[in-house]
Amino acid sequence: GDIVFDPFCGCGTTIYAAEESGRKWIGCDIAILSVKLVREVLTERYRLVEGAHFTVDGIPTSVDGAQELFNKDPSTFQNWFVERVGGFPMQRKSADRGIDGRIYFETRGGLREMMIQVKGGKHVRPTDVRDLRGVLEREPNAEMAGFLSMVPASKAMRDEAATAGMFEYAGIQYPRIQFLTVAEVLEEKREFHMPTRVNTKLTTGQQSLAL
């Protein structure tokens, strides 16, 4: 019946031990990916139901929640959005060179990357896409780029993205520049279209694993 509190819960070892020994628990972590992992383990391995057996605070589950997070802390919003689509946020903000995150996917020629850019404001422009295309052309292992935003891309932005062409792999063509909004990710469960991506689950350790 005691309460176990782990303020740096990482991959959740303390939480799982508390659950298995019949104790109540509270876990915190600054890494949203860590909270995402713990949630998955609790629901998949321990068959707990979110909202009934446990609750998660601080991670957006709605468009309004995402907007609130952006208003409060744009940097945390950026990391959340990148991790929410299965990417790895950039760790060095001063040297990101226009890249907010990366998604890695497997090809027969080795790992390739989708560059991620996040725009949390209410205004996005075709110049944002041109800048992203510049990043795509500059990075040696980048085959695609993803544009994450709060608001939908305009027709002019999509026309600009179309000029980047397609990436073909195993007979399937993928748009080199793709768009997703918060609503599409949270409500429609949409994802970027790409070959097999590298999993972002943490399997060992108590920290985000560098690829």
Describe what you observe in this structure:
It is a single chain. The chain is built from seven helices and nine strands. It is α/β, with parallel strands linked by helices and 211 residues long. The longest helix has 13 residues. A hairpin with a 2-residue loop joins β7 and β8.
Summary of the model, kept short:
With 211 residues, the chain is of the alpha/beta class. Helices cover 32% and strands 23% of the residues.
pLDDT < 50 runs, ≥5 residues: 201-211
Task: Let me know the number of strands.
Answer: 9
Average pLDDT taken over every residue: 88
Alpha-carbon distance between the two ends: 40 Å
Percentage of residues in helical conformation: 25-40%
- What oligomeric arrangement do these chains adopt? single chain
Tell me the structural class. alpha/beta
Strand content: 15-25%
CA-based shape: elongated
With strands numbered from the N-terminus, the spatial order across the biggest sheet is 3-4-5-6-9
Characterize the biggest β-sheet.
Answer: 5 strands, mixed
Order of helices and strands: EHEHHHEEEHEHEEEH
Please give the count of helices. 7
If you compute it from the alpha carbons, what radius of gyration comes out, rounded to the nearest whole angstrom?
Answer: 19 Å
